[in-house]
Design a protein that fits this description.
The structure is a homodimer of 223-residue chains.
Chain A lengths: L10 H19 L4 E2 L1 H8 L3 H9 L11 E2 H12 L5 E6 L3 H8 L8 E8 L8 E2 L2 E5 L3 H8 L3 E4 L3 H13 L4 E4 L12 E4 L2 H17 L10
Parallel strand pairs in A: 3-4, 3-7, 4-6, 7-8, 8-9
Antiparallel strand pairs in A: 1-2, 5-6
Helix pairs in contact in A: 1-4, 2-3
Chain A binds a DNA duplex (24 and 24 nucleotides) through helix 3.
DNA sequence: TAGATTGTTAATCGATTAACAATC
DNA sequence: TAGATTGTTAATCGATTAACAATC
């Protein structure tokens, strides 16, 4: 039993959907109203059938020989991703990264609204960062309940992340976006997304090291 | 022909290796010198055989009934990921995100050393951000050649990303870490890693929307 | 109509997991 | 030795791609 909201979207498709979204917004700005899988695939470098499979999860039905309605797709993707109604979120940790996230006003267009930030540094508490109040960590639990916040963002040093996450769970938060490079140990039902920059860096760094290590002539045959 | 550096590591393992690394550093700090797959798996929530498969790519051979040498694993992972010798990198875009990356001094421990930042805002050029000089974009190509820099980080608004990436390629840069939410169109041989925060956000947001949409009783059976 | 494009079923591919022999 | 743990081969699973019928 998968609930009443259709089949669950595979992680891989979920990662591509925002790319289609960004692309479709661009098309709409150019006044283009219909688009085919092959055109999307050409511009975004995916095979057309993959685009088709992904778009099927939106429930939008295309017209053979014509394509899909750009406007319909946009609405459907936003609805599928939950971007149509705002998620209010708390952010903990107002270092460099936390500050950057607070300042990224573009997020608000995609349903993410950070309503308050938290820090344990008394010099920061009481200040505003990018227009958001920085509060003491002790306020997190009482405020989350009162404001009915379901989402938490962790941008603390790794050592603090687990404790903060547990606080968030106690506060009734259901989904956590974790920017600290630690695996969080939390109850099954909490939705966690780890944004591990070291993992990404590893991928890049490994491939470059490989490239620089092997003789130049071999590079062509390397992927 | 896959080059002379052993079999290429699958992306999925590559993403887990930094997690093992972080975990092993912690063990070493506690004075633990050997560790088994089952212990790693228990703490990091992976099945032991997966840990074993991943660790095999390091080339380190464990001792049955004992486990793996923590020190050996650390050295091997660092070498595999190319973290043992510094990659000098250029960063373009000194907005919130670019500033955060520049300030993340922890990266330098993992072989990433940003040597210069670039921006097209004349008010920023000539300043320093987190100790790194901000230069005019025109300096990128000549400097990259002279300093032999192979890595570029893009932290610009999406509209600028493609043009910057092309500049980087002209400058001889071989690997690009792209934080702008656009698919870059570049020659095959350029190594690109997209750090698309919207993709991550989509995954989280979709799952939370689903959770909040379905009746509470069904949540238990939802994953 | 003819041809391009969608929708769908089947085949392929790669990654994860299971099973089990080898070893300290 | 007995038992835990590694290393490896085979089975499973899911995602991608190929093939083809349906449709405007």
């Amino acid at each position: 039993m998968k609930g009443s909201s259709g089949p669950s979207v595979p992680e891989a498709s979920l990662r591509r959907l925002p790319q289609y979204h960004y692309y479709l917004v661009g098309l709409q700005a150019q006044g283009i109203t219909v688009i085919s899988c092959s055109a999307i695939g050409r511009d975004l470098r995916y095979v057309p059938v993959q685009v088709r499979k992904d778009l099927q999860f939106t429930g939008i039905i295309g017209k053979p020989k014509v394509g899909y309605s750009v406007a319909e797709l946009l609405v459907a993707i936003e609805s599928l991703l939950g971007w149509n109604n705002a998620n209010e979120a708390f952010l903990v940790g107002t270092g460099n990264l936390g500050t950057a996230i607070l300042g990224h006003e573009r997020f608000s267009r995609f349903g993410l609204q950070v309503v308050a930030a938290f820090d344990n540094d008394p010099r920061k508490v009481g200040q505003c960062v990018h227009g958001k109040p920085v509060l003491s960590l002790e306020c997190l639990i009482p405020l989350a309940g009162r404001m009915n916040v379901h989402m938490g963002i962790i941008a603390t040093p790794p050592e603090a992340a687990q404790a903060i996450a547990e606080e968030m769970v106690k506060a009734g938060i259901q989904a956590i976006w974790n920017f600290a490079p630690v695996k969080l140990n939390l109850p099954e039902h909490i939705i966690v997304r780890n944004e591990d920059l070291y993992s990404s860096w590893a991928s890049l760094s490994c491939k470059l090291a490989r490239r620089l290590r092997v003789p130049l002539e071999e590079n062509a045959s390397l992927n």
